[in-house]
Amino acid sequence: MTQLARLVFIAFTLLRFGVDDIALSGVRQRWVRVLARIAMVGRRFNEPRGVRLRRALERLGPIFVKFGQVLSTRRDLLPLDVADELARLQDRVPPFPSAESIALVERAFGQRIGDIFASFDAEPVASASIAQVHFATLHGGREVAVKVLRPGMLAAIEGDLALLHRLAGWIERASVDGKRLKPREVVAEFDSYLHDELDLVREAANATQLRRNMAGLALVEVPEMVWDLCTPSVMVMQRMHGVPISQTERLRAAAVDLKKLARDGVTIFFTQVFRDGFFHADMHPGNIQVSLEPATFGRYIALDFGIVGTLTDKDRDYLAQNFTAFFRRDYKRVAELHIESGWVPPATRIDALESAIRTVCEPLFDRPLKDISLGQVLLRLFQTSRRFHVEIQPQLVLLQKTLLNVEGLGRQLDPELDLWRTAKPFLERWMNEQIGWAGLVERLKDEAPRYAQLLPELPRLLHAALQPKSDAAAMQALLEEQRRTNRLLRAALWVALGFVAGLLIAQAIARFAPMLR
Predict the structure, then answer these.
(1) Between these two residues, 467 and 517, which has the higher pLDDT value?
(2) Quick one: 159 exposed, middle or buried, by C-beta within 10 A (0-12, 13-18, 19+)?
(3) 270, 376: one domain
């Protein structure tokens, strides 16, 4: 009954703000336009369409606000007036009362606000769908930012998630593409990420991990957490001084190289994904600033670490091989990788899948982003995936979303940016490190502690195996010793084979790498 009431509220809200009129305004089918006109009878809207859409999403709650945040980065897919208005959802969601925010901080620490901070700005500096941020100063003089979770968030989100879970089940049963698209697994992933975002201690831990990973890159700054003042509902961190990345005119006036900034964003993304397997997965413009401080001039400042993505070694290796084959226009290898990974049925014809992938991807090359309609590309990819029964991989949903964010940022900073050409050298270098001599040495280092325990036992095991045994117990002991010896010998053999294979691979890479570029 509660979910039915929520559905009614969603439908009423969409009708109230005329979202149906906005969605159907570009539809060409005559009968759809006739229905839209009938639905508009008796309704008049004084506000612009972008304002109405933003207000509807705000009214519907955090899940819908996040959807609007993602849409706002896609200026190539949306009219500019709508994109500009949705951009307000990134950090200008209406705040909750300051008195309530102060009460939440005092309740979290069990102290009065004056005992915790030397000063606390009651007016929030940013307000988003999940939390809002206030500036403050600690008693020692250190400037900090205080993030406070919105009250009542858990109940609101769980209600909408329960509805999404039910809708996903309906879609999976009723739709021809339901099982292939795995809607229930995708919603389960979204559920997990949103609940993680509601725990600010987890967010602080994410920020600390990213700060450690990015320390040597010199391209991005991550705030330091004040761990003594971090709780599940309140998080205190180093205050960062930067300019929102959406203020391109201000950045240009400060002599920031926007083209380099666009390239750096691609490098940061691919470093986090392929080197670390741990990436910031909420990179909309509201969470990204640029430093103008002399020591860190032109670097990104990352904020809001509630949603991060992780990839296994297998996922990273598969993606890297796909990207590398894609950049080399080796569509046959892309098709083979889809079959090897189990994403498509094993009986799929490689030549047919190769041809379909070539048709979709070839127009992307040698063209700047401003000349590419990603909406059309995604539509054609969907049609191709439907034809070949490609299964959606839920663990990669966040990666796909973040790639869209990165591309949106790149388009905003440098419309001439060629995302694929910028990323290609990085991926080729990463692949060489994985399969070349350096990668072999690193893997041997990882396995060294294991073999260091086994190798000293080898002489004793060989001696025991050669000694004659007479009784059954001795025979059993001999068999056990032989089993251990065989395991050890196999391990030593694999080490030797790996060493030789590494040498051969390193030589092959050194010989043929120039031909592959």
Answers:
(1) 467
(2) middle
(3) yes
